[in-house]
Amino acid sequence: MERTATISRTTGETAISLSLRIDGAGRADVHTGVGFLDHMLTLWAKHGMFDLEVRAQGDLHIDEHHTAEDTCICLGQAIDAALGERRGIVRTAHSFVPMDEALALVAVDLGGRPYCVVQADFVTPRVGQLGTDLIFHLLESVATHGRLNLHAQVLYGRNDHHKVEAIFKAFGRAFDAATRLDPRLDGAVPSTKGVL
Questions:
Q1: Domain residues for 167?
Q2: 70 in a domain, yes or no?
Q3: 113-131: pLDDT as tens digits
């Protein structure tokens, strides 16, 4: 079964179309109008070996908040839809990724219980067009709508671009490892409850 999903979301603030293939080749075609967000989602897809296509139009004349938030809501919804019953998956994984002087750790559990913890200190208000205060909310939006447990920590670093990039690369790699199919499970749900 192909693990894919396409999500469309239209509000008074944004119009988003997003397609995700879990078992992809790391191809990304992302256009949100927020350059740094495009860069991070492209990195996430490349390092996780997902295929991701995003088209977003939003009220960027106000700021980037609604467009970035709704894009991440759609990404979370696509993750949840593509994983389905989550049968046979590894379920939990983590990844450490360095980016020059910065080092990030991301751990995920795809057990269906949404929760997000982000520990990172940013010293600049923005990276490109994206406010650094939004990073926490964007990851939380993916976790909530993707029904996953996401913990991200920047262990150290100086440059905010490098810190955020390390987080997204680590998230992609951890999510890739957690979504892999474990043949020993023989298609069973990876939980003693029998359901996720």
A1: 4-185
A2: yes
A3: 999 999 999 999 999 999 9
Length of the chain: 196
The 3-state DSSP class for residue 124 equals coil
Gyration radius (Cα) of the chain, Å: 16
Query: Dihedral sign, CA of 28, 29, 30, 33?
Result: positive
In a domain, 190, yes or no: no
**CATH code of the domain covering residue 135:** 3.30.230.40
The answer to whether the CB of 155 falls within 8 A of the CB of 120 is no
pTM of the model: 0.97
119 DSSP β-pair partners? 153
Q: What is the pLDDT of residues 32-48, one digit of tens each?
A: 999 999 999 999 999 99
Of the candidates 39, 78, 63, which has an alpha carbon nearest to the alpha carbon of residue 134? 63
